[in-house]
Amino acid sequence: MNIVLSRDAQVKIMEMTVSNAEKYFGQFCSVLASYTRKTAKLRDKADELVKYLIDFANTENPELRTALKNMADELAKIQDYRHAQVERLETKVVNPMKSYGSLIKDKRAEIKKFNSVRNREIKELEKLEKLRHRAPSDRHIISQAESSVQKASVDAARTTHQLEETIDHFQMQKIKDIQKMFSDFLTVEMIFHARSLEVFTNAFQNLQECDLGKDIEDFRSKIHIKTSNEDVRSLQATNLSSNATWQASSMSVQSTLQRHQEVEEDSFEESEEEDDDDYEDHRRAEYATLRK
Amino acid sequence: MNIVLSRDAQVKIMEMTVSNAEKYFGQFCSVLASYTRKTAKLRDKADELVKYLIDFANTENPELRTALKNMADELAKIQDYRHAQVERLETKVVNPMKSYGSLIKDKRAEIKKFNSVRNREIKELEKLEKLRHRAPSDRHIISQAESSVQKASVDAARTTHQLEETIDHFQMQKIKDIQKMFSDFLTVEMIFHARSLEVFTNAFQNLQECDLGKDIEDFRSKIHIKTSNEDVRSLQATNLSSNATWQASSMSVQSTLQRHQEVEEDSFEESEEEDDDDYEDHRRAEYATLRK
């Protein structure tokens, strides 16, 4: 009977092994899939930032414009790495974790099969026991029952042995896979962080080197005109003598303002469209490279 | 009149400067806030993974248990860095970006003030023009109008100069702040990636060193019992002579199974609760350290 007892304890451990795998692999799969999706969302947000940076850069003077565009390029590079990270997490971590679902189902089926064999053994044992109570002297019938018990026990022993081998193999595979999957997870993250660190460092140095003084001079030259009071007075003294001049000037103020506005609106729309195309082309080219 | 023309072009540039700042700082603020929130969500997901890893580790044999718990600790450390990253992004990037909202509003008000002064100048010019058409010989009234034009022009020149200085200062501050905010953004990211890389590398090495062979031996010793057919037969031969033994055994099978189940369920719940506490304490301690 010690065999039945220790066999039950043994099978209990095996059942726990499979149940735990089911529970925790399920949790790992779902949390890692979610982690991957959130990483993809972070990539998308940073992509938006890249787009805004390029748009904004186009409204600034040369030094800052170049610096911001360079930074946008570096940030886009990091998003390409992040995209590769997302794809690798899916392929190397989430999918292998997911595939455990059907493997665990198989093991459950084998345990179920074992349990039915074990129940038959217990039933035969109970039958034998009853016979010994009711007909202790009927050696023939008891001997038959003993033989059935023995047969059921041999079956149970064989199935236990099979199950033992199956679960042993499952456990070995499982812990190897866990080590492999999390090693892959850590590798994917390491690669991403190493590359990002490099690119961020580059971007930082470039941004530091940007000479804002030049841009300020550029800006000043655009908004500054000579408007001292003497200039205003002398200009008025010469102009006040002619009506025609005032009228012509008054008209040209309006048309200049209109033209000015039109030009600026057009160039802004154009530059935005160009950026979009450049940006998409850039991303597609980068992804194509990554896929190779 | 050239003054009015170039002044309009000049103010147009200043208006564009403020409008662009409003548009792009608004976009930066919203996309960076969203980027920060998504980073926080990634931290939360990784925190979940840490929790599951510890729970799962507690169901495994010593080598893998230790390896997974160490890895969970390292992952938790990275989430503490990520938490610091989130806080720094808010403090050093999103909030300064946000504060530009009211600054831009002030600049808009100054441009509006300038425009009203400029409109007064144009009105005075138009008035003078009309008078010269209607009463070209009334020197007194024309002289009065000329004096009003001159006064309005001086006002406009002064306001232009003020606006010029204000916008010059705004632009200088703005490009400095852009450089500062994005340098801070890059620094926060660099620090996070550098630390993460270090910790992930550690975690990877630890996981590689884990000796799974030992765990497999441990597991085998738990699920393996001697169940050769000879053992089964010899055990039956000695036991079949006593009814009492069978009965007692049969009862003990049931009670042992029940006890076994209870113990396992209890210990599982306990270990889960303990982990929760450990985990929370750990996080709280870590955050407290970070806050110091």
TrEMBL record, chains A, B:
Keywords: Cell projection, Cilium biogenesis/degradation, Cytoplasm, Cytoskeleton. One of its GO terms (cellular component) is centriole. It comes from the Eukaryota. GO terms for biological process: cilium assembly. InterPro entries: AH/BAR_dom_sf, BAR_CBAR1/2, CBAR/FAM92. Residues 263-279 have a biased composition (Acidic residues). Belongs to the CIBAR family. This is Protein FAM92B. It comes from Xenopus laevis. The lineage of its organism: Eukaryota, Metazoa, Chordata, Craniata, Vertebrata.
